[in-house]
Amino acid sequence: MLRLSMTCMIYLDHNATTSVLPEVSEAMIPYFTSEWGNPSSAYKFGSKLKGAIEEARGQVAALIGAQLREVIFTSCGTESNNAAIHAALQANPQK
Q1: How far is CA 67 from CA 74, 76, 89, 93, in A?
Q2: What residue spans define the domains of the chain?
Q3: What distance in Å separates the CA atoms of residue 57 and residue 25, rounded to the nearest whole number?
Q4: ∠51-37-55 over CA atoms, to 5°?
Q5: What's this model's pTM, rounded to 2 decimal places?
Q6: Closest alpha carbon to 60 in 51, 72, 48, 49
Q7: Phi, psi of 2 (to 5 degrees)
Q8: What is the DSSP letter of 94?
């Protein structure tokens, strides 16, 4: 971190984490408070959440010009890395 003064600091380490944009935080509030649950479950509460995830998948796909099946949400960098490695191994099993 670079300190400019006692009252001003610029955070330069966004390698491991970064702050959430205010509009993202606002959009997520329902899912942190009243709309929580397991989107893979069979009950109605969960299926509603699955719909929200699929809507987000569609938004991301449209934003980056991808197909829905190409957008995979993971919970962390390690899970993302493992998914990428497994996909690469499936595409080129001899390597």
Answers
A1: 17, 22, 21, 24
A2: 2-91
A3: 17
A4: 20
A5: 0.69
A6: 72
A7: -105, 120
A8: T
